[in-house]
Amino acid sequence: MAVVISESGMQFGAYAEEQVFHLEKSGQYTKKLMPNGIKSCEFILRRGSKLFFVEAKSSCPKQIEADTPKEKKVKYDEYIQDIVLKMRHSLTLYSNILFQRYETEGVPEVLRQTDMSALEIVLVLVVKEAEKEWLIPFQDKFRCELKNEIKIWKSSLIVMNEAMARGKHFII
After folding, report:
1. In terms of C-beta distances under 8 Å and separation of at least 24 residues, what long-range contacts does 98-106 make, across chains too?
2. Which CA distances in Å does 35 have to 22, 29, 86, 106?
């Protein structure tokens, strides 16, 4: 059965059920963690030798300039930090599921394997309404904020808009 995840005005999928763990809707997250302020990305997707942690947003703020008003800078920083926390918390929650500190219910077998050392972890942010020229500085900001996690997890980060995500077959 194919899985389609609707988020931020986009349709992610269609993925084989055994490829995807809808972390944001999982009981592990919604019952105990979400009520306590823990954040989550939308879902985890396994494709070949890659494990994608996917977060979706409908829009993003424009880049901050030196003359940007303070309240816009604060909102921009809050937007960035919200997504950073989602990625950090998602990596931690998923690893704790693998350590069986949380139940594995709903996690496909291919995402519960004990040796995933050969998999490349990729943090993915898809912003539906992002203009292409915003993406490189936006990605650089996230890469800077998540530099420790990228080193610890030996991962990479991609920020893309809807058209790019469609081209990479993340959305339909």
Report:
1. 102/28, 103/27, 103/28, 105/26, 105/27, 105/28, 106/21, 106/22, 106/26, 106/27, 106/28
2. 18, 9, 14, 20
Digit-coded pLDDT (tens) for 45-77 = 999 999 999 999 998 877 766 677 888 888 888
| Residue range 73-106, pLDDT digits in tens | 888 889 999 999 999 999 999 999 999 999 999 9
Name residues whose C-beta falls within 8 Å of residue 35's C-beta, 6 or more positions apart in sequence. none
Cβ-in-10-Å burial (0-12, 13-18, 19+) of 94 comes to: buried
Identify the H or E element spanning 72: helix 70-98
DSSP 3-state of 15: strand
Handedness of CA 88, 94, 95, 100 (dihedral sign): positive
Could you tell me if 98 and 21 are in contact, meaning their C-beta atoms sit under 8 angstroms apart? Answer: no
DSSP letter (8 states) at residue 10: E
